[in-house]
UniProtKB/TrEMBL annotation:
Protein name in the entry: Aspartyl/glutamyl-tRNA(Asn/Gln) amidotransferase subunit C
HAMAP family: GatC (MF_00122)
Highest taxon, organism lineage: Bacteria
Assembly behavior: Heterotrimer of A, B and C subunits.
Classification of source organism: Bacteria, Bacillati, Bacillota, Bacilli, Bacillales
Length: 96
């Protein structure tokens, strides 16, 4: 991987609309280089026998199975409505 330069840091800061000083750019260059070096250590690991994962935790679906059911009809739903019109519930206006 290419080394992170002070110019790279300044360019990314410019794209992010961040104003950084030369001292900050130097500091961030060192910090980001250490981070990249640490991440590069992962390339040294033997992962041939490791199965890829999509998530580190073993999640299971705890919701019920989605199965179609017969629900009440529109007429049954509106049967006890205090106010209805054209097959819909009528409610007081909340906006003027």
């Amino acid at each position: 991987m290419a080394d992170i330069t002070k110019e790279n840091v300044k360019h990314v800061a410019h794209l992010a609309r961040l104003a950084i000083t030369d001292e900050e750019a130097e500091k961030f260059t060192k910090q980001l280089s250490k981070i990249v070096d640490y991440a590069e250590m992962l390339n040294e690991l033997d992962t041939d026998e490791i199965e890829p994962t999509t998530h580190v935790l073993d999640f299971k679906n705890v919701l019920r199975k989605d199965e179609p059911k017969q629900w009440i009809t529109q007429e049954e739903a509106l049967k006890n409505a205090p106010d209805k019109k054209d097959g819909h519930f009528r409610v007081p206006s909340v906006m003027e």
